[in-house]
Protein: Calcium/sodium antiporter
Amino acid sequence: MVISLLLIILGFAALIFGANWLVDGASSLAKKYNVSDLVIGLTIVAFGTSAPELVVNSIASLNGYPDIILGNIIGSNNFNLFIILGTAGLIYPITVQSSTVWREIPISLVVAILLVGLANNFFLDEISQISRLDGGILIIGFTAFLFYMFRQMKKDENIAVSYQHKSNLKIWGFILLGFTGLIVGGQLVVDNGILIATNLGVSEKVIGLTIIAAGTSLPELLTSIVAATKKNSDIAIGNVIGSNIFNILLILSVSSFINPISYHPKFNLDILILIGGSLFLFMAMFTGKRKRLDRWESAILLSFYLIYTIYLVWKEIQ
Structure:
């Protein structure tokens, strides 16, 4: 048990460093092409910080752990929305661009609604699962999102961005180190997460929604906290919203392509909480004179997540 805890911590550390190196290399590459901070936050940083979820879920899918996959995706999105935005908003109120209010936030909401529809057989399948067909629908949505971001990049191409020159060797070295750390860390997290669940006698769902979700979301947490302390709202909000979209459209689709994911309705409440949190974030943009997430609204997000976590644990021990 103690060894498993130490190894999962080591795995999280490898994931964090790996994601950081990957983001550093990829962001440096993007800066060479004059990409704006908002687009970097919504795409490269979001993809890099979602890489731990991608690796962990791919390994879990290969080994047949559907509750770990779903718990990690849904739990990570809830952690991103409630804990990361809540923490960043307490540090510095997050001002949100109009395009994010009317486009990216609603997209993340629609994606969450699509997930609950596909998983519960509202559209296509005869059984409750994320099938390869469902994964195909999600990947089409992901492609459409990338196309939208490409158009956004074209609009922002004249925006000046700061850039410290790095050699191609250094950039690709960071990217390679990043992928290595992610793969090693992901394997440690999945293997030892299952062992901890077995030893504690708790479900894979709860482990996925809490420990693994929080651990794989640490890169997003660190990225948004640093952005908030530097008063860079675009990166703080773009990182979270982008990651939530990536998690469902890309990571869940990849996981379903590896193996169809069995879905249990017990996850419906957790997805509904994600939908409710996304609605709260959208409505919070209109509570003041400016489109921003204020400190009192951030405190509500944090408080609700605490209550939700207590409920998960209480229900598990009943």
Remarks:
- The first helix runs from residue 2 to 31.
- Strands lie at 94-95, 129-130, 261-262, 292-293.
- The chain has eleven helices and four strands.
